[in-house]
Amino acid sequence: MLGTTVMIPSALVPLMGGSYHDKAIVIQHLLFASGWNTILQTFCGTRLPVVMGGSYAYYIPVLYIIGDSSLQQISDPHERFLQTMQAIQGALIVASIIPIFLGFSKIWGIFSRFFSPLGMAPVVGLAGLGLYNRGFPAVGNCVEIGIPMLLIVIVLSQYLKHIRPVADIPIFERFPILICVTIIWVYSHILTSAGAYKNAPDTTQDSCRTDRAHIISSAPWFRAPYPGQWGPPTFHPGHIFAMMSAVLVSMIESTAAYKAASRLAIATPPPAYVLSRGIGWQGLGILSDALIGTGTASTVLVENVGLLGLTKVGSRRVVEVSAGFMIFFSFLGKFGALFASIPFPIFAGLYCVLFGIVGSVGLSFLQFTNMNSMRNLFITGISLFLGISVPQYFNEFSLFSRHNLPFHTHAGWFNAFFNTIFSSPPTVGLIVAVVLDNTLEVEKSKKDRGMPWWAKFRTFRGDNRNEEFYSLPFNLNRCCPTT
């Protein structure tokens, strides 16, 4: 998850007017918020072993706020950074009400009654496959690092997973990420130190070099994140409305990730009540992101869902301990800046494997449906195709050119809202799949849609294993009845 944690502030903070010091601090804040929100989600939310982290779903609304004319008129870069961050915080604070309300009122669980294995297959599949642009296209920016990373991950995790050189411990199956990142990181540092990129183009140097001295020197040794450090949040109706679209997208993407995580962790599909509870706590996590000032907000990280399948480690305790490490390192700025020196093609090589696993988990839901039905073939095919094709169309346009975006009315908030919605593959997939699945020959196709298998997991009491997987600790279910 360090890839997302570093890349989002690195892209957005300079556009706000922030310095290297500001970027290092925002990375610390996002790492802290990721750890805190992960503990909330595994302890009180869905209880699935998922990791929360910064989401690209907020990219377009944040860019809209950054481009606001009232903020662009501020001549002092640091003051513009502070006021932009305050505007983002205010928009997130209000927008977080949506998942908090939909989650804790259990409306999101009621809406999930329209989900079937057929409808969820393309949505979960697109949660992984829809992120293809963060895979090999980023590997190609530095092939001498990205391709070895991709190949070594496959070799260690698949071909050598049965080799146990130490005390009968499956080292290569459990720790392929740690081993591969260390090897390729050292290799990339040797290339940098040897001057391999001295005369390379700027884009190649940005992707390949490990010497990020400006980030490390700018980062404080110790700094504790706390609410309100950027100043009091500001509230603008247009900013809030634009941010609501990102919150809706992150809810859909997280729902798909919950479904995938439950299968990879060998748990029952999360009942409607558990989905609502998870979305409600995700809303509280977005609120904490806003108060701390991370420049974005949290969602379930798809790459860590794929990691469940790669390592076969589905323990929530492992994830909670990992979240503790996130919080610990967030206080030590130099360590976070050191991690920021990892070239992104290393992460991209991992993403090729991890996102692919999540995509295949989505397609595995089709085993509970009748794929000899032309109705089902039509819904699956058009949902997958449009889920990839429509966001690709929207992402081809310049995010800064109001006149070139597909939605380019005079209302910037309106443009940001709909451009965010249709730039998300799982969201487009859900709109197409769920609408078609619930309007085309519904009564005739219950068995073909996989509803007999799916329906028994809708309620908390529908399967005896639900209590083992999803009950809250310390008998807290008395306070949150599983209705």
Automatic annotation (TrEMBL):
It holds the Pfam family Xan_ur_permease. Keywords: Membrane, Transmembrane, Transmembrane helix. It is found in: Membrane. One of its GO terms (cellular component) is membrane. It is a multi-pass membrane protein. One of its GO terms (molecular function) is transmembrane transporter activity. InterPro entries: NCS2. The chain crosses the membrane at residues 48-67, 87-107, 114-132, 138-156, 177-197, 240-258, 318-340, 346-365, 377-394, 414-436. Belongs to the nucleobase:cation symporter-2 (NCS2) (TC 2.A.40) family. This is Nucleobase-ascorbate transporter 1. It comes from Aquilegia coerulea.
